[in-house]
Amino acid sequence: MQEAPAVSVRCLQRSHVISPSKMAAKEGGFQWPWQYNFPPFFTIQPNLDTRSKQIDAWCSLVLEFHKHSKKYELDVKEATASSLFRNDKINRILCTNWS
What we know:
Layout: H1 7-13, H2 48-69, H3 76-80, E1 86-87, E2 92-93
Antiparallel strand pairs: 1-2
């Protein structure tokens, strides 16, 4: 069985970005991608191909969210409590145990 690569390495290696049309700013607010309201997006996927796509989507989301917010640093403790990693609408929080 193939082992999934580390998240931080994959985020740095990936150049995939969600297109502006899918992630457009709307009336000064951030428009979440469709995956954000899809509960499995917040759950680590066991299939490596699916997990790879999931990690790519999370990397893109984090980058686009920070670009929109004009933030240049990510405080992990602060971010885990923010709406970036918490979707109250579907009662989901991103799991921080990616092992």
